[in-house]
Design brief:
The chain contains eight helices and seven strands; from the N terminus they run βαβαβαβαβαβαααβ. By secondary structure, it is of the alpha/beta class. The chain folds into two domains: 204 residues, 3-Layer(aba) Sandwich (Rossmann fold); 35 residues, no CATH class. It has a seven-stranded parallel β-sheet, sandwiched between helices. Helix 1 crosses helix 8, helix 3 packs parallel to helix 4 and helix 4 runs parallel beside helix 5. The longest helix has 28 residues. It is globular, with a radius of gyration of 18 Å. The protein binds nicotinamide-adenine-dinucleotide.
């Protein structure tokens, strides 16, 4: 199996993409340490996987350095040695610069940027000490392509793409690889939640518009992101380092299909 020998810690694992990654990683032989704000929810959602001791669910708030240090200590004491770290947890706010409040910026940068920093800082030393490992960051198409009304979120995701490259160049000699995935719209609770919050009563129209945004004509499925994650966390991608991998149904390829056909 493609992830035999990998012990993968995933943050924000209770969400749509996180759950798909848990399933795909377990299916490829990994031990998965799945973390989120609510560990019990992960356990409930994963019951059908019958993962046994291959799945360890723990509470982890990526904005809480002492909680992160506590988990790192706990895992060490249990002999669980992380060699793959997936920084997946995120917060989003919608709006242009003039809509954004400083609280929006603090929330989004606190979870997305500082959270990635906190968790990576806690787990990277162990990975280096054991001869290397892989960091996979969930960025976004918004990291590389300005999306309307995503000022705070896009800025945080652009920072993640550069944090990924910085880790890649700084730790390559320590056996660490770092890459990020940049998806366009993925059909997860993330989308449902912000449609409900920001566009009440217009959810259906907005959902259809978000689907049309991808020239392929639909949203990405979480399992399609998880498939790329499996590759980037496996040894098949041993020569892949510092990359930002777009999965966007053709958004970045160029023009949208013309109305004339
Ligand atoms: N869904 C999309 O369209 C899309 C597109 C591009 C990138 N992404 C990125 O993919 C990743 C996963 O997104 P998703 O769609 O599965 O989202 P989701 O909302 O379904 O899941 C996100 C998870 O992060 C957790 N979380 C939030 N704050 C946290 C904190 N402080 N500490 C720990 N966990 C926290 C939430 O509890 C949630 O389970 C995110 O980084 C997101 O930015 C999503």
């Amino acid at each position: 199996m493609r992830l035999n020998g990998k012990t993968c810690l995933i943050t924000g694992a209770g969400g749509g993409i996180g759950m798909a990654m848990i399933e795909a990683f377990l299916a490829e032989g990994a031990i998965v340490v799945a973390t989120d704000l609510d560990a019990d929810q992960i356990v409930r959602n994963c019951e059908h996987l019958q993962a046994g001791s291959q799945l360890i669910a723990r509470r982890l708030d990526v904005t809480d350095p002492s909680g992160i240090a506590g988990l790192a200590e706990q895992l060490k004491a249990e002999g669980v040695e992380i060699n793959v770290l997936v920084n997946n947890a995120a917060a989003i706010t919608i709006g242009k610069l003039l809509d954004a409040t400083v609280e929006d910026l603090r929330l989004v940068f606190g979870v997305n940027v500082e959270g990635l920093f906190n968790v990576t800082k806690a787990f990277l030393p162990g990975m280096i000490a054991r001869g290397g490992g892989t960091v996979l960051n969930m960025a976004s198409l918004a990291s590389v392509h300005a999306m309307h009304e995503r000022f705070a979120y896009s800025s945080s995701k652009a920072a993640i793409a550069m944090m990924t490259r910085s880790i890649a160049v700084d730790y390559v000699k320590d056996g660490i690889r770092a890459n990020c995935i940049c998806p366009a719209r993925v059909h997860t609770p993330f989308i449902e939640n912000y449609l409900k919050k920001y566009y009440p009563g217009e959810e259906k129209e907005r959902f259809e518009a978000l689907s049309r945004y991808q020239p392929v004509g639909r949203m990405i499925q979480p399992s399609e992101v998880a498939a790329m994650a499996v590759y980037l966390c496996s040894d098949e991608s041993a020569m892949v380092n510092g990359g930002s991998f777009v999965i966007d149904g053709g958004v970045m390829a160029g023009d949208q299909p013309s109305p004339e056909g």
